[in-house]
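Worked example 2:
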Amino acid sequence: MFKYLLLIFLFISFSSYGESVFRCKNIKGVDLLYTKNGEEFSKDAYSGLTLNLTVHDNNDATMNWEGGFNSGFKEDLIGTNAREDGWITWISSWPQVTRMYTLFFQSNKKAQLSMIESQTQSFTNYPQVRSFFGSCN
């Protein structure tokens, strides 16, 4: 029953009222780099970064980065998947990097945003994948 109510809520929130905005902070994550010596793993975070997700009435979205070294960066996202059990996914693709953002909804909890980046590292061209989580209001 909860799944169906959540699906109805998501449909009403993102379709009937225009735009919804989620402000996501405390972005923390990990970095996995494949080098000539094998895999290297490290903690990675966008210190001081806030991700502002605006979901449009067509379920596409815009992500605005605020703070950190990428402050002012903006990208348009394409909605790819929405699930009745509480998550929605968008992607963006650039020549240098592809990002996937997923917004998770949980009963009686704040929404969580994950971001996964796939790219090659500057100067070395080693494959690199980063994965982050942040909490949203």
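Residues 1-16 have pLDDT under 50 and may be disordered. The helical segments are 2-16.
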